[in-house]
Amino acid sequence: MAAFLLGAVLLIVQPQIVPSRPAINSNAETSSQSVQRELLKKMSQKNDFKENIHSNGSCQQLPQTIIIGVRKGGTRALLEMLSLHPDIAAAENEVHFFDWEDHYRNGLQWYINQMPFSYPHQITVEKTPAYFTSPKVPERVYNMNQSMRLLLILRDPSERVLSDYTQVFYNHMQKHKPYPSIEQFLIKNGELNVDYKAINRSLYYIHMQNWLKYFPLDHIHIVDGDKLIKDPFPEIEKVERFLKLSPQINASNFYFNKTKGFYCLRDSGRERCLHESKGRAHPQVDTWLLEKLQEHFHEPNKKFFELVGRTFHWHTFVAS
């Protein structure tokens, strides 16, 4: 891994849009940024790279914060809301560096090239929801930066399963391809199909155990995805505090769009909503099947609550 890290460089970058220079925030750099700068300093002393600094002072750098998941938990909404803060520079696309072998083999140079240009006082953020459920990712992130600040947004596990199916269903519909009903995935031989990938992704405590092998709990902030949908500002305030950001985002940055049925963003007089693919209606599921799903998650949810020392108000069903 040491050889891998020493191979990282900052010069060879693809042309990207560079931000105009904002007012400098006087806040001290995060410990994660300090770690990264020490790493880059050591590499520069060995003449292993030349920094690519734009004339306005911005450059591409490794992320100090990663939104690791969960898939269909609200990661895009979280990233868009967090990007309202002037000290956040967010990668536009999901990078899949740590979970896709073809990307990981490209090395840190390739990873840096996927990042936006940012200033030294800004926090670079990337999101790839698949990181949370990929067994090999925690160690890889740790080897890159032990001080990484991680954001994890979770929602009711049963609802997340339905949303997971809904996304794949619409993807097939757009390509005019048939797709089985959700019942065909959830039921196998008359019982709940516990091998269905969407169900396994909602077993949060299993995946969280893997991350806690490498990162302490105080380096992982869990965003309540269900609360973020209903009342985003309090949840974003907590994220600001976790990242040690000055309080710049306020309640006026959010407004409820009655047509879409969820909150949209307002920034410097400009209004925008999430893509139309977000907030789609879930398929109708028979009550008995939904209860079966909720019953399945009852014990795993309890284990997760104990693991993180926090309770979430997720639907549950216990057979009498």
UniProtKB/TrEMBL annotation:
GO MF, any single term: [heparan sulfate]-glucosamine 3-sulfotransferase activity
Domain of life: Eukaryota
N-terminal signal peptide: 1-20
Keywords: Disulfide bond, Glycoprotein, Golgi apparatus, Signal, Transferase
Catalytic activity: alpha-D-glucosaminyl-[heparan sulfate](n) + 3'-phosphoadenylyl sulfate = 3-sulfo-alpha-D-glucosaminyl-[heparan sulfate](n) + adenosine 3',5'-bisphosphate + H(+)
InterPro entries reported in the protein's UniProt record: NST/OST, P-loop_NTPase, Sulfotransferase_dom
Positions with a binding annotation for 3'-phosphoadenylyl sulfate: K72, G73, G74, T75, R76, R155, S163, Y263, K278, G279, R280, A281, H282
Homology family: Belongs to the sulfotransferase 1 family.
Entries under PANTHER family matching the protein: HEPARAN SULFATE GLUCOSAMINE 3-O-SULFOTRANSFERASE 1, HEPARAN SULFATE SULFOTRANSFERASE
Protein name as annotated: Sulfotransferase
Natural source organism: Taeniopygia guttata
